[in-house]
Amino acid sequence: MAGFTRTLLSSVALCAGLVSALTSTLQTGTLPSGQNPTNVGFYYYKPTTVAAKPAVIVAVHECTASGTVYFQSTPYAGLADTYGFIVIYPSSPHSGTCWDVSSKATLTHNGGGDSNAIANMATYAINTWNADASRIFVTGTSSGAMMTNLLAATYPEIWAAASVYSGVAAGCFVSSTGGVDAWNSTCAEGQTVDTPQQWANVVHAMYPGYTGPYVPIQEYHGTADTTLYPPNLNEELKQWCGVFGYNYNAPTQVLQNTPNSGYTKTIYGPAVQGILAQGVGHTVPIQPTQDMMWFGFVAGGAAPAKSGGGGSTTSSVGSTTSVSSSSSIISTTTTTSVVAPPTGCQSAEYGQCGGIGWTGCNGCVSGTTCQVLNSYYSQCLA
Ligand SMILES: *[C@@H]1O[C@H](CO)[C@@H](O)[C@H](O)[C@H]1NC(C)=O
User: Fold this and answer.
1) With a 6 A CB cut-off, is 72 part of the ligand 1 pocket?
2) What is the set of active-site residues?
């Protein structure tokens, strides 16, 4: 960070995507022999000036894209110039360039799949570039969002925080026949419905014996997503609520029109937030300001320090009690204004109110009615 001045985030946003204005260029890296079993492409952007102990964001692309495309289509390289971090862009080795989130190898800690190679890139950054091991972040879009949930499940010790744009729960896109990089219609269409405890068990089975903390995570999803249906957001949130011991049916706070008009942010505890984007399809656009806040580069809503979650899946958190035993760092404003969920069990506008497998509120707040979008998803709409 030393050596240059922070730019106002508004001007950063204006510059985002203007690759020609960057201080440096995209480079290729090579993992040590044996550390890249599936031959995942390794691209990275290291600004001309980085912090002495730089943070790292691993940014994982969608199907049909690549590390190079994601470098160009996302704002992270411009933000790296401003904040002095390094961006790693892994690139899928598979035909069609989706990620393998279905094979036993990739679904297992140190299992030798794509997830293993990406985790090794983060470790490489720490060892080779003197990156700050306590500030390694991961984010991704669509197939890259599935990979982000999977990386949070299989390598919880690496990531300080994660943000997920339009994915599915870790282990949802599994292949029953062990297929690599397989498509799973059941999961894509939102028909895999599990309890928080079941999802937590899926996570723990990916890294048996791990008792350390898990990764604070933000999950974005659009209500008009017809590629990965909206109920997948519920399953992602149930998964991490299960892991962190939060009560999925009693979020601590529901913020309308946050961070954008028509977006609803639901907070389940310091480490788990879901953001439902009304009318947005596949995929929710990257929210650079939100990511910079969640990853702690900009003040106003940083993910809490990792704590808890290691193996504890039974405790639940009351809706109006203090949401964490750890030092809660979401932000002073949110922690002092925690509100109870609607009484009589009514979901907020844009909240879910029904659908196969739904066990939450069936009512809607006044001014909205419960409307069936598909058999798996009914929503409170005005
Ligand atoms: C798709 O994933 C679900 C879990 O989400 C799993 O039960 C099912 O067996 C998978 N389907 C195939 C064809 O592998």
Assistant:
1) no
2) 142
